[in-house]
Amino acid sequence: MKALKIILVLTVLLYSNVFSQFSQFRQLFPLNPQEGFFGGGAGMTWIDNKPHITAHLFPEFSFANFGIGFDLNLEFDEQGQVRTENFNEFSDYLRIIRYARYGRNYDPLYVRLGALDFASLGHGSIMRRYNNSLIYDTRKIGLEFNVDFHSFGVEGVYSSFAENSVVGARAYVRPLSMTELSSIPIIGGLEFGATYTTDLNANAGVRSGSLVDSTFTISEDSGPVKVFGFDVSLPLIKGSFGIVNLYYDYAEIVHYGVGRSAGIELNLNGLGLVDIRTKLERRWNGNQYLPNYFNSFYEIERFRFDESSNTVTSKVQALESNIAIGNGYYGELWIKVLGSFDVIGSYQRLDNNPESGVMQLRADISPENTQMVARAGYDKINIKDEKDLFTLDDRSYLYAEVGYKPIEYILMSVIYQWTFSPIRDINDNVINFVPQKKVEPRISFVYPFDL
User: Which residues contact 275 (CB under 8 A, 6 or more apart)?
Assistant: First the structure.
């Protein structure tokens, strides 16, 4: 069984269709202006070994600098009733609009409202690829933006309009760009930044609690988590072919620990049809400090309550354990071959912590003139060793689709998801997450068009 899981993950990372139903790809690979597509599908899915009929609509449109995407997923049980988790609160109806955006995440002006799949601030020491909608059943409507006036700017994240949650901002300035020194190689692009991020969610600082009359009640609470930091970056090389950038970050979790990191970024854009972006970072982590505190798994790591053992597991507990996690490395690679594929991968490993591995993979590969379709996204935290890398458990998230196009706009595929299902108390508050497996044969219709 383990071998089959590994084969599945490796296989789906090799191919993918340009019309990705895996909507997280759209933040990384948005549609071009004046493009759109209409997508929809129907099938049968097994959720926790129970059959459900599914219907899915996912059209997207891009015109000028604006883009909008929809995502309506209906699951009907054996009695013909819509699955409760699909529409159990008013915000579920609003989330049919998956996102609305202006610009792209590398433009001087970029704003995105809705699902935030890869939100980062600065070089990512405090927030890197934060995901407010990792679980479909608990999707959130948030905001991220970047306003760059060349000499200075600000970027920010607000994770949920429906509740108190993660909010952060980074202000940055390029002081020499306002002087005659801006034309001097290397130092002309010097940039300084300052970041502040906090989690105002009621469960952000929970250390212990219990169920009282079927309602979770907090016993010990450290309050909101607050993190601030400073950074400096210096472009060694900057031209039409790419950028080589050095940077140094300092971050402090208030009342806890301090971390520092230094790295090099390499973006090559002048290699014909191939673009390469890579990053290598060295990290120095003090006691009671966790790098990338707000990461892709944060919404799950923040707080979980196990009813069977009456225990709380939270991220703030990891800070208060006073265990030195040790120094380490972080690496990232993005390869983009126009008209063929995009592959993104990142990995963290700490020197003295055998359970410190963190991996994130995304692939969108679409060789021309082929009818085979496959795509995948995979996240894993607290990786112990190579054998643990592709073991699916409560530290894993996987989306994979393998299919075939008998005709141009029809896709017959099988979707496999290893995700999470929320556990709620009597007041409908999410108190835990348990792994959930979904298997869905689907027939989809995907039609691209020009606006």
Answer: 267, 268, 269, 334, 335, 336, 338
Mean pLDDT in residue range 235-264: 91
d(CA 73, CA 94) in angstroms, rounded, equals 13
Mean pLDDT of 366-390: 81
Element (H, E) at 25: helix 25-28
Q: Which residues does residue 31 pair with via DSSP β-bridges, in sequence order?
A: none
Please state, in angstroms and rounded to a whole number, the distance separating the CA atoms of residues 235 and 44.
Answer: 52
Dihedral sign (CA 385, 8, 75, 101): positive
Residue 12 CA to residue 89 CA, distance in Å, equals 34
List phi, psi (to 5°) of 86.
Answer: -70, -40
Q: How confident is the model at residue 179 (pLDDT cuts 50, 70, 90)?
A: confident
Please report how many Cα atoms fall inside a 13 Å half-sphere around the Cα of residue 238, on the Cβ side: 15
Res. 308 pLDDT band, cuts 50 70 90: confident
C-alpha closest to that of 231 among 372, 114, 118, 122:
122
How do residues 91-110 score in pLDDT, each as one tens digit?
667 778 888 999 887 789 99
- At 389 the three-state DSSP class reads coil
Query: Do the bridges between strand 66-70 and strand 60-63 make them parallel or antiparallel, or are there none, so unpaired?
Result: antiparallel
- pLDDT for residue 22: 43
Among the residue ranges 17-21, 167-171, 263-267, the one predicted with the least confidence is 17-21
Question: Which residues, 6 or more positions from 73, have their beta carbon under 8 angstroms from its beta carbon?
Answer: 54, 55, 56, 86, 136
Note the helical H segments in 82-127: 90-94
Residue 378 φ/ψ, nearest 5 degrees: -145, 130
Model-level pTM? 0.85
Beta bridge partners of 42: 55, 443
Residue 301: per-residue pLDDT: 92
Q: What is the mean pLDDT of residues 360-385?
A: 81
Q: What is the CA angle 111-112-117, rounded to 5?
A: 135
Cα 231 to Cα 124, 171, 220, 447: the distances in Å are 10, 10, 34, 45
Q: How many helices (H) and strands (E) does the chain have?
A: 5, 26
What phi, psi does 14 have (nearest 5°)? Answer: -95, -20
